[in-house]
Amino acid sequence: MISESHPLHRMFRGLTESTFMAELGVGDPSLVGYVSNLLASFTPTQAHGRIRDQEGRPLFEVARILAEAESAEDEERRGECHRHVGDFTLFWTGLYPDALRRLGSGTADGLLDYQRQGKRSYYLASTLSPRSDDRPVLRRLSEHFELCAFGLSRVRGELDKLEAEGPSQPVRTIWA
Questions:
Q1: With CB atoms 3.0 to 4.6 Å apart as the test, which of 33, 91, 93, 129 could cross-link to 149 if both were Cys?
Q2: Can you tell me the distance from the alpha carbon of 166 to that of 148, in angstroms, rounded to the nearest whole number?
Q3: What is the DSSP letter of 169?
């Protein structure tokens, strides 16, 4: 995870706040903060495989993570899996919607509707989270999944503009 004091994290926070609050009129600091933290947490590609199976192998497919959630013996593990599915689907739906077809090609993920699954998973995570202070934002992510995905697409547009301005921008190395 990139620390909150890191310039990249601060840039994500600023772009997300600007886009969500100024362009979309979303004045929900906890929702906006969650989405900007999502960007920072998914920047290192290792975060995509944060959920591991029983043998410790990283799971990169939504269908396999959902199967892991269903086979989990405790609610906390199920909630963790569903939260990751929500995060994963929001990240890809918002930032790389054109890559979704390739991402699921040849796997069970090709049969999934990422938006519907993301909404469902955030809802389930909101009911299973052991931290009661996480539940409201997870519920709002479920309710406003499409808006958040659209907001992330706008953030991606801003990141692309920064990248076009020159190689001195920190974005160049993570989105290329």
A1: 93
A2: 28
A3: S
**Amino acid letter, residue 53:** D
Give the separation between CA 26 and CA 96, rounded to whole angstroms. 22
Query: Burial of 116 by CB count in 10 Å (0-12 exposed, 13-18 middle, 19+ buried)?
Result: exposed
CA distance 145 to 4: 24
Look at residue 9 and give its three-state secondary structure: helix
User: How many angstroms separate the CA atoms of 48 and 42, rounded?
Assistant: 6
Read off the pTM.
0.86
Distances (CA, A) of 14 to 32, 102, 150: 10, 30, 17
Q: Are 46 and 95 in contact (CB under 8 A)?
A: no
Residue pLDDT, tens place only, 18-61:
999 999 999 999 999 999 999 988 875 656 677 888 888 889 88
